[in-house]
Amino acid sequence: MSKRTRGIPDSFVDWFRGSSPYIHAHRGRTFVIAFGGEAVADENFYLLIHDIALLHGLGIRLVLVHGARPQIEQRLNARGVEMQYINGVRVTDEAALTCVKEAAGAVRVEIEALLSMGLANSPMAGARIRVASGNFVTARPIGVRDGIDYGHTGLVRRIDAAAIEQRLDAGAIALVPPLGYSPTGEVFNLSAADVAASVAIALGADKLISLVESKGVTDARNRVIQSMLPKEVDTLLGGRRRLPEDLVQHLKGALHACRSGVKRSHLIDRRQDGALLKELFTRDGIGTLITAEPYEETRTARIDDVGGLLELLEPLEEKGVLVRRSRELLETEINQFTLMERDGMVIACAALYPYPQESMAELACVVVHPDYRGDDRGDRLLAHMERSAKALGIGQLFILTTQTAHWFRERGFVQGDLKDLPMRKRELYNYRRNSKVFIKTLAG
Ligand SMILES: CC(C)(COP(=O)(O)OP(=O)(O)OC[C@H]1O[C@@H](n2cnc3c(N)ncnc32)[C@H](O)[C@@H]1OP(=O)(O)O)[C@@H](O)C(=O)NCCC(=O)NCCS
To answer: Which of 18, 76, 323, 429 could serve as a FRET partner for 438 with CA atoms 20 to 30 Å apart?
Structure first.
């Protein structure tokens, strides 16, 4: 082992390489990140700030929207008063407003201080981050409802997107407190979730990311639900299940954002160290993604997929691109198939036939439905199949093709010979078809 690589595990290299597609994809994008005052009060808040600084360093345009609830409550308690809630909505009287202003100011200073760190040998060394806050949010009072005056509790009326864009264009991180100002010069106490969703919509942000104080949205077995459509969020919010208040607020924000053009809203567990990085730089993430786009997944085929697979394969079999497979054969070999499903429809597939003795596997039937080509699905499927093969201890993939040779060559396959194939495969070779053999040695 050379001196330079001593002590650096291979997993680091794999992890870093694995994150590169996301680094490219996120650069220049705008993300709005919302977190509560709980995150700021946490002794590990600096770790979240380090991760935010890293995102900034990777060229992501960031708007941070913070809450200040515990800080407000602390100040109210010190004065011997309590925040009043009516039907889940807080009432901000004069005394409470003073606490809101103080708390929001203190939180802002705290965040600015942490983002200004630059100690040598710390993750912030050389970061030199500029933070810009301001009167970006115009608010109006909730007003009097059912005879109850909600005082200085307000709603977002308008976001000065141009002013935020200007700060982002200048390379700063924009910091937006849960406060808004009215043209009459008053201050209003707002919900951070409402502010974050409104900012994301006004900016046309690529993502709204809400760091919540729980695991996120979970199913009946307490597993995090990876992806939800807006109508599923509607059902959840309208149902009888009791959810933490901050989760409800952020789900409502995500729903609003999603229906107003923000493509992706993520809800992730703030309490997990590195949650932001795990969500943004790994394929599956750790939280719940709310997106209006149909949900797509890559998975092993099951017996009830045979119909969908036949529909995908038959047109290509007729053209002679693929060897014909009967329904019976597909049924027997169904476990060999991996497919991409989009809203219940099979839109791509590939099959893997391992020859463990030779440490080889045949890759076959790599197909993307014609309506879904041109979006890198073939590449993603190939990468998936390579990972599956590696997990089985396979060192080389081979493919027999008549019309797609160049596609595979451009992806690291090199022309081979019949004699390079496992004996059992050679015996089955169809000389009339005269397919070419291509082989790829899998790295690592
Ligand atoms: C090969 C395939 C899976 C790729 O799907 P995809 O990821 O959605 O990508 P596209 O079809 O948009 O093609 C991606 C690139 O590969 C090229 N390509 C597509 N088919 C090709 C072929 N038969 N030979 C060489 N290059 C090909 C495209 O021109 C495109 O390159 P470009 O953008 O530089 O022009 C898909 O084209 C397909 O299903 N083809 C028919 C089935 C097939 O031949 N499978 C192999 C059988 S073993």
So the answer is: 18
Residue 45 CA to ligand 1 centre (angstroms):
47
Q: CA 128, CA 117: separation in Å to the nearest integer?
A: 8
0.70 exceeded by pTM: no
Residue partners of 95: CB distance under 8 A and separation at least 6:
76, 79, 81
Q: Residue 1: which pLDDT band, with cuts at 50, 70 and 90?
A: very low
What is the pLDDT, as a whole number, of residue 243? Answer: 92
Q: Is 217 in the pocket of ligand 1 (CB under 6 A)?
A: no
Does the CA dihedral 365-370-372-377 come out positive or negative?
A: positive
Look over the chain and give the mean of its residue pLDDT values, rounded to a whole number: 92
Q: Alpha-carbon torsion 107, 108, 113, 118, what sign?
A: positive
Which atom of ligand 1 is nearest to 399's Cα? 48
2 pLDDT above the threshold of 60: no
Place of tokens 């991409």: 340
What helix, strand, coil percent values describe the chain, rounded to 5?
40, 25, 35
Indicate if ligand 1 lies below 6 Å from the C-beta of 366. yes
Asked if residues 32 and 203 have their Cβ atoms less than 8 Å apart, the reply is yes
Q: Are 391 and 300 in contact (CB under 8 A)?
A: no
Residue 215 has pLDDT above 50, yes or no: yes
Q: Confirm if 441 and 386 have CB atoms less than 8 A apart.
A: no
> How far is the C-alpha of 31 from the C-alpha of 28, rounded, in Å?
10
99: buried, middle or exposed (CB in 10 Å: 19+, 13-18, 0-12)?
buried
